[in-house]
UniProtKB/TrEMBL annotation:
Origin organism lineage: Eukaryota, Fungi, Dikarya, Ascomycota, Pezizomycotina
Sequence ranges assigned to domain Fe2OG dioxygenase in this UniProt record: 187-309
UniProt family annotation: Belongs to the iron/ascorbate-dependent oxidoreductase family.
Swiss-Prot/TrEMBL keywords: Iron, Metal-binding, Oxidoreductase
Protein name stated in the entry: Clavaminate synthase-like protein
Keyword ATP-binding: no
Keyword Iron in record: yes
Gene Ontology BP, a term: small molecule biosynthetic process
One Pfam family matching this protein: DIOX_N
Database matches in InterPro entries: DIOX_N, IPNS-like_FE2OG_OXY, IPNS-like_sf, Iron_ascorbate_oxido_reductase, Oxoglu/Fe-dep_dioxygenase_dom
GO molecular function, one term: oxidoreductase activity
């Protein structure tokens, strides 16, 4: 059996001087790229998380026609149907020989098995109103609750960017935080995403699953600065790739020492943009969601909050002694760390590049 991931648990709920917490957070971000944020209900009340999961179940249970009317667009908002997204296009197998044949003949479909999941992406809300179509099954009250949850996630991420800036001694220390402040003329790619992974038995025959070969979400790193991930007790499946680039380790929902907490810790992971900003010092760790065993007979729900800076933010290396020393040692370049050497992109350019790679159908007309 694979060894479970040894990811540190960090409590950010304390008052007063946060210097030590900030340093611990940075060390964890360097070493693992994944960190459990002990959730004592202070930054995000446990009821708000439970409420968000209720909204998610309601949304995915809505009639197909309602979800279809909200199909994801180039603005990355809306509903992504089963297999519409393929997070690891280079490796996800062709699902069925017949499908391959049809694909080759028609030359239109995406030949890979897409992720065996549905997703719904929420962009910004203005005065508790989503700026995108939502399934009518969701009431105005539901909509406001989702918007409020998104705000809580954003606030927690701003706190985390501030701690990372402090821990890395970036000059000025609020560099990351300021890059994430948005306004109507400084929009960002930030997305709140509900995810639904149907149980094995409910997959349509065409998507007949080979549990050993197919994944619920393909191997990927996240596109933004950082991601918050909310999961439900008993719903395993997330795995992270080790530094060897080969071994996968499961990431428990409830790590040792948090069993008695009011809710599971919030899982934080570093995304591509913080890796670029630090020349690969902070780790944007590859992860995936697999069929984990006996429990796959139940649906799995998770909620991700992908935090992005405003679109024009440049991803050049930040002024920080720690980052400079890391770059001068040259280890990252020597190891082929993809974040250590590249031309400077903006956050928007990077996002567009990643979306094109994951949504073959959506972008096929715009190749
Ligand atoms: O559902 C999960 O546990 C992880 C999802 C994920 O990695 C993603 O959507 O980027
Ligand atoms: Fe992810």
């Amino acid at each position: 059996m694979a060894k479970i991931a040894s990811i540190p648990v960090i409590d950010i709920s304390g008052e007063g001087d946060q210097t030590q917490v900030a340093k611990d957070l940075v060390e964890a971000a360097i070493e693992h790229g994944f960190i459990y944020i002990k959730n004592l209900g202070k930054d995000i009340p446990v009821e708000a998380i439970e409420g968000a999961f209720e909204m998610s179940k309601k949304l995915f249970n809505a009639p197909l026609s309602e979800k279809r009317a909200c199909t994801i667009r180039h603005n990355n908002r809306g509903w992504s149907a089963m297999q519409y997204e393929t997070l690891d296009p280079g490796n996800q197998r062709v699902s069925h020989p017949l499908l391959l044949l049809i694909t080759v003949v028609s030359l239109t479909d995406n030949p890979q098995t897409g992720d065996l999941k549905e997703a719904f992406n929420f962009g910004p809300f203005i005065n508790s109103k989503a700026q995108q179509p939502l399934p009518p099954t969701l009431t105005g009250e539901d909509e406001a609750a989702i918007g409020a949850f998104r705000d809580l996630c954003e606030k927690l991420c701003l706190k985390l960017t501030t701690l990372l800036g402090l821990g890395l001694e970036v000059d000025p220390p609020d560099f990351f935080t300021s890059a994430h402040l948005t306004s109507p003329d400084r929009p960002s790619g930030t997305i709140l995403r509900f995810l639904y992974y149907p149980p094995h038995e409910q997959l349509p025959a065409r998507e007949a699953v080979d549990r050993a070969a197919d994944v619920r979400a393909g191997a990927h790193s996240d596109y933004g600065s950082m991601t918050l991930l909310f999961r439900l007790r008993g719903q395993a499946g997330l795995e992270i790739l080790g530094r060897d680039g080969k071994s996968w380790s499961p990431v428990p929902v409830v790590p040792p020492g948090t069993e008695e907490d009011p809710g599971p810790p919030v899982l934080l992971n570093i995304g591509d943009l913080l890796a670029y900003w630090t020349g690969g010092l902070l780790r944007s760790t590859v992860h995936r969601v697999v069929f984990a065993g006996g429990r796959d007979t139940e649906p799995r729900y998770s909620i991700a909050f992908f935090f992005h800076p405003w679109g024009g933010a440049e991803l050049g290396v930040v002024p920080s002694q720690r980052v400079r020393e890391f770059a001068e040692r040259g280890d990252a370049k020597a190891e082929g760390n993809p974040y250590a050497e590249r031309k400077v992109l903006t956050a928007d350019e990077h996002l567009q590049m990643r979306l094109r790679a994951s949504y073959a159908q959506l972008y096929k007309d715009k190749a």
